[in-house]
Amino acid sequence: xxxxxxxxxxVGVLLICCNIGGASAFKTHNxxxxxxxxxxxxxxxxxxxxxxGGDLTKLHKGxxxxxxxxxxxxxxxxxxxxxxxxxxxxxxxxxxxxxxAIIIIDLPGDLVETTxxxxxxxxxxxxxxxxxxxxxxxxxxxxxxxxxxxxxxxAQKLFGTNGAQINTQEWxxxxxx
Length: 177
Known about the structure:
By secondary structure, the chain is mostly beta strands. It is built from one helix and nine strands; from the N terminus they run H-E-E-E-E-E-E-E-E-E. It has one helix spanning about 1-25; strands spanning about 30-40, 45-50, 65-70, 80-90, 95-105, 115-125, 130-140, 145-160, 165-175. An eight-stranded antiparallel barrel has the order 1-3-4-5-6-7-8-9. The protein starts with a helix and ends with a strand. It is found in: Secreted, Extracellular space, Apoplast. This is Dirigent protein. Belongs to the plant dirigent protein family. Homodimer.
């Protein structure tokens, strides 16, 4: 009886190991692009739409921002556009903010929008350290893909004391299904 139990346990462990081995069949690929956000400057791509007491003039706790900008192939804002970066930022005191973004990749000849949805929390806009965010869904050509995004600030220019700035960020999505 003990030998049968040991054999059954060994088969169970083998099945678990095979299942774990099968999970490594998850195929990923990288999608890299650059986002050029500008806040509280002329022709800004990020707009404060709500703020405590109705104050829409500076970045501070409780502000809600909406972004709508192009993504490009390189860090040069005049490089080839790949699509759009749209979403919202919610500030929780200037130390961190939450981001919900839709990345629309405009593929040549693709009549259906191909998108990734990204969610997460980041340190402040003024941070230059790498951040990781969740890629929770893909649609169109990327349907069913999930993964994570690594965001790295490659250039930043600050203006005044109200939070006005221009940022260039490199985004690398590691996604698959």
